[in-house]
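ugh ok so i messed up the first submission bc i forgot one of the chains. this is the corrected input, ALL of the components this time, i swear. 1016 residues overall. if the numbers dont match what u have on ur side tell me asap before i send this to the collaborators (the ones from the other lab, u know who)
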Amino acid sequence: MDFDEFREFGHASIEFIINYLSSIRDRNVLPSVVPYEVFNQLPKEIPEKPEHWREVLKDLDQIILPGLTHWQSPYFNAFYPSSSSAGSIIGELLIAGIGVLGFSWICSPACTELEVVVMDWLAKFLKLPEHFQHASEGPGGGVIQGSASEAVLVAVLAAREQAVVSYKESHPELSESEIRGRLVAYSSDQSNSCIEKAGVLAAMPIRLLAAGEDFVLRGETLKAAIEEDVAAGRIPVICIATLGTTGTCAYDDIESLSAVCEKHKVWLHVDAAYAGGGFALEEYSELRKGLDRVDSLNFNLHKFMLVNFDCSAMWLRDANKVVDSFNVDRIYLKHKHEGQSQIPDFRHWQIPLGRRFRALKVWITFRTLGAEGLRNHVRKHIELAKQFEDLVVKDSRFEIVAPRALGLVCFRPKGDNEITSQLLHRIMERKKIYMVKAEHAGRQFLRFVVCGMDTKPEDIEFAWAEIESQLTGLLEEQALASRKAGNVADLTQHFQIHLTTDNVEKSQ
Amino acid sequence: MDFDEFREFGHASIEFIINYLSSIRDRNVLPSVVPYEVFNQLPKEIPEKPEHWREVLKDLDQIILPGLTHWQSPYFNAFYPSSSSAGSIIGELLIAGIGVLGFSWICSPACTELEVVVMDWLAKFLKLPEHFQHASEGPGGGVIQGSASEAVLVAVLAAREQAVVSYKESHPELSESEIRGRLVAYSSDQSNSCIEKAGVLAAMPIRLLAAGEDFVLRGETLKAAIEEDVAAGRIPVICIATLGTTGTCAYDDIESLSAVCEKHKVWLHVDAAYAGGGFALEEYSELRKGLDRVDSLNFNLHKFMLVNFDCSAMWLRDANKVVDSFNVDRIYLKHKHEGQSQIPDFRHWQIPLGRRFRALKVWITFRTLGAEGLRNHVRKHIELAKQFEDLVVKDSRFEIVAPRALGLVCFRPKGDNEITSQLLHRIMERKKIYMVKAEHAGRQFLRFVVCGMDTKPEDIEFAWAEIESQLTGLLEEQALASRKAGNVADLTQHFQIHLTTDNVEKSQ
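and heres the new structure output, hopefully the right one now
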């Protein structure tokens, strides 16, 4: 490695990032490319000889950037945010530069221990029950997973294995495969697609129970489903509740769900991928109700904590339940400090063996922003969403579909699904802002999420101007079309009369 | 984001990396810390106010670095390498700076298309069968997974779901859970722990068949196991073969295994996490024998292609088999260009929903090194391992345990397992180099792997000097202990005679 060249390339790349991020509002958030347009501009083989990095940066600028959807743009209002910050970007540079892996303690002790530190920091910051901290007396603790999907899958698989073991003990007459064939899990029909996928991957059906009209899953619904399953000889394993559903950011009722889960010895996991950001705020303390009774929990740092993807925090009330389910060791992985009671070997807390030093970017981000900076960031997104909500409410052509929650506003133009679809289609074709739609009980609506780096009130105004002007345009077009249709109808009638007259004349 | 501060922090971090990597030989490869030593040096809460990044870099230098195991050190000879390069480190910086996610095409078209490009590049570079390329006629293609564990799990889960569907069609009288209860998979007892773990996660037993004395799994062993299982009413699903086992870098016999798999309609996956690097070399063309008959394949770019972790390439002969098994879509994920035949939505090719823009670091690394640079890197590791092997062979106190393969030499001091353990213990206590041991048929041995950034012949000499001098020290200590034991024995005998005489005298 030529360090002088590395320095030059590094500095140029930092300027590249500064140029990109500081001018991100000048680009359409959605790219103007058709499938294979980027592909077709690139050569079909690795160059035989090395190319200069300047060539690569040039192509990155001229071929790749024009083909990207700009997630850090304030005009990206589609999915929940994938946030970022200076500390986190530099954190990734340092993670790569240091280049260690941390699947066991000996593999890089500081890598494991810094993760223990930042997960306890975060548990305190989010005011989670104390038993989730590594430093607490019990077997609880936190771990960084790659994504919410992985956290959910870890909970689902561990709960499945625990259920098989405990049911086997109480029902020795059943074979393991008979037990596995009876397992069943639960979630709401508002939960993220990754939960249904976890059921497919775990080969365990996950019943997607109907949420209430307010999009909330409650204990009574779960109770009825569990009782029905138990009566039919099935074995309830886990319920995956959501705080902040993808569609409308609804909050499942953790307290009533936990009571049902406790009674039936069902694992309760909470997917708070997005709404977990609210835990940190005094004014959102309601959100934390019932968390002392859940078995596991996940929250995406890339959504609200300014740590870039991938970084999904997961806490377990009893980590041994996962470790016991997943531990398959080999001699080459053993070391003398093993034993989860002493220090965790995080490879047993996750799906893969290898793991990056993600704790480093968390540590850098948290220290350079401070608890104050993190809370301010969440509050800023809430304020901007309120600003957007006010704009919607003031325009009588629109309606709010679900209560604004954190940084999400769900709304639609009054009328049928067709007008919602058409409006979104127009907006997507123009590529100025990016939203996606969702659906509940047959009713489609638009989701406006505050995202992007350093989003400002004027960005919200820009987005709203785009939305309302496009509705105006759409309504005008429709009116024009309708007038034309009316004229055509008039004309047709005229011709019909004429023809009829003509026919009459001819027949005369 | 304050861009001036970002620039300053970025430049300082680049210097930090240069300092760390350029002086990495000055550090012991293993740290001198006990559990919780790093943890205890760090505060217990997020600071309320932001701290300056200089403070963070200072602590990184003074608290974190001394607690790390240095994977990029040439004296790290433990696991297979986790390689890195200037292009790849800067690649991570740019990935984080641009900050896009790529779970579907519309999410960031260039992110998906660049992955298609680099996976086809790599398939050609490694001389894989053409049907693994996206650009080929059929349904094949490559995808970047996070790790070999995830690639193996994807193959295992997809094979499982395909088997259930096809067995259900041919045996409609069986329930789905009856079918699932009969599924069985195969691998060698030399395969990586992640394969056994995949069996646990998939709730499908994976039989670890005994490899031959040469550590190789062959078709005849698989055939016997499958026939036994079929006779017992079980359903064979998948065989996970290994090219380059973790213990000794043995190569399973893909040709004979594929013949058996084809006959029994069993999915054949090849885990070439390490040895895949050899595919690129003309002189290793033997390694590629039979690959035209496998269903899927994985190769870790962080092992031999100088792209840092995480980056595990996976190819599928028929990607639809994975997509059909994993697809659980929601309205908010749909877009108008969907359809795998046109362009892949890679979220259906993997476990999680979210995915980083890893193709970017692959692209930068490949272009800045060229195909030539990549091949030279693999050849350099092979040369250095040969150098080490020669040193072992010349010292009659040692023996080679398995044929040297690529960058791995398996050896041990002559004698029993105890002396191997003691030698490793001494070496680990000194922390100058880091090796791990493995075991086959009750026989323990040491693995010396060429790893690290920019490893040179003198680094191999350094490692060998450490190993052979520690054996010398150990043997001297044993000889001394044995002489002392001899003296003690003499002395005891003397006293016994004396005592006896004494007793005799007393009894007189």
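quick check: The first strand of chain A starts at residue 141 and ends at 145. that seems consistent at least. The domain at 379-476 of chain A is CATH 3.90.1150.10 (Aspartate Aminotransferase, domain 1).
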